Amino acid sequence: MTSAATDPNRTPVHKTVLMCRPEHFTVTSTINVWMDPTKPTRTDVAVAQWQTLHDAYTQLGYDVELIDPIDGLDDMVYAANGGFTLDGKAYGAKFTYAERIPEGPAYMEWFGANGFEVHEPEHVNEGEGDMLLSAGAILAGHGFRTSLDSHDELRGIFDREVVSLRLVDPRFYHLDTAMAILDGDSIAYLPAAFDDASRAELERRYPDAILVDEADASVLGLNSFGDGRTMVIAQRATGFERQLRSRGYETIGLDLSELLLGGGGIKCCTLELRR
C-alpha cells in the first residue's frame, strides 16, 4: 500500500542499514511471548518475505550491507539487536538469553571489519532493539532485554543524552516494538507499553506524536523503519498507515508474518549504520 498524499516538503534522509538473510531461521525455543516451537516455521517463506524488505530498501535508495548468517543462530536475522552505531562507533550487544549470546561477538567482528570503533559491552543490552536515536538523544528501553546499567555505558561512549524508558508489556519487549522513529524529531508509540513515568516523559518530549492503538501494535506495526519521507511498515497495520498518511508520509506495507513467529518485524531486521 502506498499513499498518494505525501507532503512535498518531506525530504528523505539517505540510510545505510545492515541486514542478515534468514537462511537458518526457525523457532526452537520460547524467549518471548510471540514464539511457540510447536508451530511450524517455513524458512523459505521467511527468506522470501525478508527479500521483499531488502528490495524495498534498495528501491528507496538505501545502501544495504549484509552480515553472513551463522548456522544454529536462529534469530540472527533480527539484525537490530546486534548493536548500536553512531558517530563511527559501535556499541556491541550482550544478549539476555543463551540462545542469542553468540550473535554479540559475530556482529562486533563485523563492525570492526567494516570501519567502526567497537566498544564491547559490560552490561546486558540488545542493541538498537532498545536504543533509538531521536532529535540527537538516544531513547533507551529497559525492563525486559536491556539493563538500565547499559544506559550509563551509552552515555560514556557516545556523549549524548540518554532517555531511559521502562517497558511493561511482555508483547513489546524491545523498544522498537513499542515505538517508531518517523523523522528527525517525530515518533509514534503505544502508550500502554510504558510505565507511567516513561509515558509522561514521552508526552512532554513529543506532544504531537502519533499514538498507535493496540490492534496495530499487536501486529508489530510500530516495528517499522523509514527515511523521514517513506515509512516501511507492517501491511496489517492499517490504522497506523492511515495516521502516517494524514501526516504526509508515504508508506510501503509489507508482509513479514513468518518472521513475526520469532517475535520480530521490519525494524528488527534492520540495523542502521551511522558512520
End-to-end CA span = 32 Å
Beta-sheet strand percentage? 15-25%
Helical segment tally? 8
What is the spatial order of strands in the main beta sheet?
2-1-15
Class based on secondary structure composition and strand pairing: alpha/beta
Number of strands: 15
The largest pleated sheet is described as: 3 strands, mixed
Residues in helices, as a percent range:
25-40%
Q: Quick check: average pLDDT? A: 95
Query: Which blocks of ≥5 consecutive residues have pLDDT under 50?
Result: none
SSE pattern, N- to C-terminal:
EHEEEHEEEHEHEEHEHEEHEHE
CA-atom Rg in angstroms: 17 Å
Can you give a write-up of this model?
- By secondary structure, the chain is α/β, with parallel strands linked by helices.
- It is built from 8 helices and 15 strands.
- The strands form 5 sheets. It has a 3-stranded mixed β-sheet with strand order 2-1-15, with helices on one face. Strands 3-4-5 form a 3-stranded mixed β-sheet, with helices on both faces. It has a 3-stranded mixed β-sheet with strand order 6-7-8, sandwiched between helices.
- It starts with 15 loop residues before the first strand and ends with a strand.
